[in-house]
Design a protein that fits this description.
This protein is an alpha/beta fold. The chain contains 14 helices and 27 strands. Helices cover 28% and strands 25% of the residues. Strands 2-18-12-15-11-3-6-7 form an eight-stranded mixed beta sheet, sandwiched between helices. It is globular.
């Protein structure tokens, strides 16, 4: 047991001195956990007991792998150079002709990962219902995009939302408003797993009433998609309809729209080339993306490498833009019948992400999670496609919200299009101080309206700062209000390469 506890605390999977001791403690930990899970399942009401039992069995399998796997999941010196053709340049893809598009789209399912809450941005409920542009939410924009596709090409692309126990109830209420639109919406829930005590490695939940003790449960990351999609019956349903691929993306990535060029690559047979079962959209790494997962070749297979898997002595190598040029956008295209095959064979294998957390009551807990892109290595003919930066437009913080609400973008049929007036295709680097800008409501209260950002390269704002109407920001602008000071940028101000400091002096940068 002590061996696992060390591992949980440090993330390092160091072998213990005695194999026999380790095997006994692993077996004991697993047996004790399984008894606890059986006891938990018995507390579930009859209508839900089968589902709860199946989900807890999934957790038990994950835990078994966690306690039995030794050593790091990646040995640094075994990482191979990406082979020729492993990453396809998006610019080389063909654009399909109008008469083939309808038939192609009938073979597609769009999946949005909708399990996250908006708490990090100070909002209640699902993140997908935060207004991001013209009072439209992430969900509104997604539905608009799919409806536009269906109307334009006279097809029926379904939209599937993977919810979590945190978001399902609110989402079900919200999607009723889309009933009159030309888009079929399906939902299913990802699994609900018990958080475990970091010391005892046993669940902290006393019963299966999740709502009674939300802190005792967690959704186990988007890697749970494959099994939960299958369990919902939707995977089988879409395969029977003749659908071939699903396009999976985070609901907060406003650049993740259906791309006909990629769909054409997947559905058009390539002479002398293996059938592509899995595509990971990657884009060029910048200094802002150094922590994002990257593509590597390992054991002659393409796979995703996350920063959590990197030995501490190689973290700087991992962050190097020269060594690892691409990062994962989490826009994925996966063949539906290949998901069925992988699940039926039991060959789905994703690295475990150990997420240590500290609860408000002082308890240290562990969450075992997986990432949806980590399944890449178990599919045949997997490739990366190096897509334009415009396909990666996530809104994780209010600094991202500032960009998507600004005149950098216009809105067209639910899609954000960068202004042709912008000289560079890259977005400005924006850093807003956590103390005054982190929550959406407070952030909005600091801008009379969103400044003109067309010519902005870099913006840093720290402290108690407000912006009047019609402000224009260009080049590099740094605004820092010292503790106790307040800076009000006047209406109509144009700041270009300026530093504005605590006593409201405006300096050339």
């Amino acid at each position: 047991m002590e061996d696992f506890l060390k591992r949980v605390r440090s993330h390092q999977r160091a072998p213990s001195g005695s194999r026999e001791f380790r095997e006994v403690t692993q077996r004991d930990a697993l047996m004790t956990l399984r008894k606890e899970l059986e006891r938990l399942a018995e507390t579930a009401p009859d209508p839900r007991r089968d589902l709860v039992t199946r989900e807890l069995e999934g957790f038990s399998s994950l835990f078994q792998r966690f306690v039995s796997e030794e050593g790091p999941s990646v040995l640094w010196d075994r990482i191979q150079k990406l082979p020729e053709g492993a990453v396809v340049d998006y610019g080389l893809l063909k654009t399909p002709t109008g008469d083939t598009v309808q038939g192609m789209l009938e073979k597609l399912v769009v999946v949005k990962l909708n399990g996250g809450l908006g708490t990090s941005m100070g909002c209640r409920g699902p993140k997908s219902v935060i207004p991001v542009r013209n009072d439209l939410t992430f969900l509104d924009l997604t539905v608009q995009q799919i409806e536009h596709l269906n109307k334009t090409y006279k097809c029926n692309v379904p939209l599937v939302l993977m919810d979590s126990f945190n978001t399902d109830e609110d989402t079900e209420k919200i999607i009723r408003k889309y009933k009159g639109l030309k888009v079929e919406i399906f939902t299913f829930n990802q699994s609900c797993y018990p958080r475990i005590n970091r010391e005892s490695l046993l669940p902290i939940a006393k019963n299966c009433d999740v709502q009674d003790d939300l802190e005792a449960w967690y959704p186990p990351g988007h890697g749970d998609f494959y099994q939960s999609f299958h369990n919902s019956g939707l995977l089988e349903k879409f395969v029977e309809q003749g659908r071939k691929y699903c396009f999976i993306s985070n609901i907060d990535n406003l650049g993740a729209t259906v791309d006909l060029n990629i769909l054409d690559l997947l559905l058009r047979p390539q002479p002398d080339k293996e059938n592509v079962e899995f595509v990971m959209e990657v884009t060029n790494k910048t200094k802002a993306d150094v922590k994002g997962g990257t593509l590597i070749q390992y054991d002659d297979k393409l796979r995703l490498l996350e920063i959590a898997q990197v030995p501490s002595e190689h973290v700087e190598d991992f962050k190097s833009v020269k060594t690892f040029k691409f990062f994962n956008t989490n826009n994925l295209w996966v063949k539906l019948d290949a998901i069925q095959r992988v699940l039926n064979r039991g060959s789905l294998d994703m690295e475990i992400i150990v997420n240590n957390k500290h609860l408000a009551n002082g308890l240290n807990i562990v969450q075992l999670e997986t990432a949806v892109g980590a399944a890449m290595k178990v599919f045949d003919g997997a490739i990366g496609i190096n897509v334009p930066r415009s396909r990666f437009l996530p809104v994780k913080k209010t600094s991202d919200l500032l960009l998507v609400m600004s005149n950098l973008y216009s809105l067209s049929q639910g899609s954000l299009v960068m202004s042709p007036q912008r000289m560079f295709p890259t977005t400005p680097l924006v850093k807003l101080g956590d103390n005054h800008f982190a929550k959406v409501k407070e952030f909005l209260g600091r801008f009379a309206n969103i400044p003109d950002l067309i010519e902005l390269d870099h913006l840093t704002v720290s402290g108690d700062v407000t912006f009047g109407r019609g402000v224009s920001l260009k080049g590099t602008v740094i605004i820092i209000a010292n503790h106790g000071d307040r800076i009000d940028i006047p209406s109509g101000a144009m700041l270009e390469n300026k530093i504005v400091s605590g006593n409201m002096r405006i300096l050339d940068h």
